[in-house]
């Protein structure tokens, strides 16, 4: 492709509204342009990268017998109402009405559509297992679109769905999909980890996220420094043996703590350690008020709380509700002398507290010498806190460290969550109706463009991996007015094309410095420059990743390039 004929609007200045490097470079190098908040046009360079990523995805999906189809982006409300997600999904679901006042949604995900399709067409266990996938634009009304393609309101996604007669069959496909995802992200050259995750609004129990390690990641990964264990911090189990003090229990005492509300303030005021303090929070759990306890140096993980109580909704109660229940405000709450009907759930660390400190449910007062069991009752203990750096790894190997990550893939075992609610059944080998057992598997294809862009760059621009670079080679003629240079460039262009190389030929009437700056910004794997030695048949070849530059005779160009592009 001649550069004068394509559309690559590069920028010299860093866009003011772009916060992260990948977003800045995608704009500056002419890959994308914003149409409105969270919505982008993919210009020719980005489109080529997208297609190459999609091809890798397709190859790995087909390798595990997944079959491609394409479902509508416009989805009727009735399907979402069957599963209850029309109300439960929340404001991220983009809703609209047609001219007949019928409700529709723009597809945020396709569990309902695919389940209805298979429900209508697959009647026997003999047609199972079945895995179907698509690559399609999705729509979610993000409250805060940010970081360019990393969090948008319209994005490209690969979503796959599998249907099974048995749990064992689901497990097999799930493991195949994990391997396929691992292959995809490895082929893209990404630094990633598969981590234990929460299923969120999708549903189901077993789930893993694939996280690309990045300083701008919106998720925190807890991982072992000695094993392959990795989990989203929301899901990382805490496996700590807490030491128990043999100190004699002291008499419970209420003390004045005027204007001391936070753990840090109480620790300083009473000269105690955070480990001896009991943090009391009131949560609204499916419309029931529950007091949740954690040690002062720990934080309650509401995802763990939700899972432990098998709840649909968990959120902190507001101050008025708390005051009506306990007669005090946040900062003075505690588990002693609670109303008799209030349930108390505690993190395991609370067991180790001896002669501790907690709020007295009276503003400006706390109890000291508090002991669980003696001074207050606990309905049940659960793992409720966030894991911390330095905690032992849940698999018993090494200790926990943290890293930031960008989620690029997610796999779920849905079970019968959707097939039960939508009455999607098949006849088993005994002729009995059974609900389909399902899996769900997603990859953010357009998000991958940004994730790769975030990892593969330097101070000059992109350094695209050769497997997904928009073009293989950037061919530059230093001086188009020089006959020898122009002729050799045209000859080289045709030669490279004949060997199936995808070449971007910079034939623009621009200064050499502009062409070189744009070439570095765009970041193709190889730059071939034809300059003053054109009359001798000599070309300059620069490899973008290493920065190495060579002078090669035109006769040896193809063989040397073949060695580079075909090397593993």
From TrEMBL:
Residues 38-465 form the Aminoacyl-transfer RNA synthetases class-II family profile domain. GO terms for molecular function: aminoacyl-tRNA deacylase activity; ATP binding; catalytic activity, acting on a protein; proline-tRNA ligase activity; transferase activity. PROSITE patterns: AA_TRNA_LIGASE_II. Signal peptide: none annotated. One of its GO terms (biological process) is prolyl-tRNA aminoacylation. Its EC number is 6.1.1.15. One of its GO terms (cellular component) is cytosol. It is found in: Cytoplasm. Its main location: cytoplasm. It comes from the Bacteria. It catalyses: tRNA(Pro) + L-proline + ATP = L-prolyl-tRNA(Pro) + AMP + diphosphate. Keywords: Aminoacyl-tRNA synthetase, ATP-binding, Cytoplasm, Ligase, Nucleotide-binding, Protein biosynthesis. Belongs to the class-II aminoacyl-tRNA synthetase family. ProS type 1 subfamily. Consists of three domains: the N-terminal catalytic domain, the editing domain and the C-terminal anticodon-binding domain. NCBIfam families: PRK09194.1, proS_fam_II. PANTHER family: MITOCHONDRIAL RIBOSOME PROTEIN L39/PROLYL-TRNA LIGASE FAMILY MEMBER, PROLINE--TRNA LIGASE. Catalyzes the attachment of proline to tRNA(Pro) in a two-step reaction: proline is first activated by ATP to form Pro-AMP and then transferred to the acceptor end of tRNA(Pro). As ProRS can inadvertently accommodate and process non-cognate amino acids such as alanine and cysteine, to avoid such errors it has two additional distinct editing activities against alanine. One activity is designated as 'pretransfer' editing and involves the tRNA(Pro)-independent hydrolysis of activated Ala-AMP. Homodimer. This is Proline--tRNA ligase. It comes from Viridibacillus arvi.
